[in-house]
Amino acid sequence: MRMDFDDQFFVNGKRMHAQQAGNMGWGIFADAHFDTGDAIIRIKIGGDEHSEILPWEQQFGPYYDYCFTFAPRFVFCPKPTHPFRYLNHSCNANCGFINWGILEEDTYLPVVAYKPILPNTQVYLDYPLLTCPDEGTPEGDPWTMDCLCGEPNCRKIISGFDALPKAEQLTTLQRTIKGKSGVVLAHLLDGREDLLAEFAQQSPKLFAEFTQALQAQKDYARRLSSTRQL
Predict the structure, then answer these.
(1) Helical H segments across the chain, by residue range
(2) Candidates 2.170.270.10, 2.40.160.10, 2.60.40.730, 3.90.1150.210; correct CATH number of 2-229?
(3) What is the pTM of this model?
(4) Is residue 229 scored above 80 in pLDDT?
């Protein structure tokens, strides 16, 4: 069984589809060759019949297993017709975000290839790079999940970015994809003063990019809050 998606999710005619993926349920597979840095899925934030934007407190319902916090206290929730809903986790992920999760044109969030992806290859995210520490329950308990990826570096149990070993966090913060930094959503680091002090010392230029991105995400969240209060 195969599921295809609207053309609006893809660029340059390169598409993805969903199909059964063994013990992971459904997964997303490439229909074309993608080079490192290519956008494989383009997420439209808001104004899309295939998704919803909800305040963080409203995520604990039918969307819970599929949504992620893209800006402070706001979650992106894909419906069954959205390809992002079917992206599984791997501790050796071949795709994810760049530019600290900043929206392009204030509207689009691309998922890009972290390495070359061949046709019929399943694509995976690294869930801790987009998971806030308080996303487990409405009470704010940490989110955790048993990992089934089977990679040599499998973490067995995965949680938010803050649960990774500190050395791995610092290495990840300095990772670049085709010269572009920011594979971690900026707001995941808000309040992590100990980690940020070391990051700033090791990579002042990247840290400056991060601080600008964090401010942009906070500003976007404030605009969303103001719109919903009108």
Answers:
(1) 166-173, 193-202, 204-229
(2) 2.170.270.10
(3) 0.94
(4) no
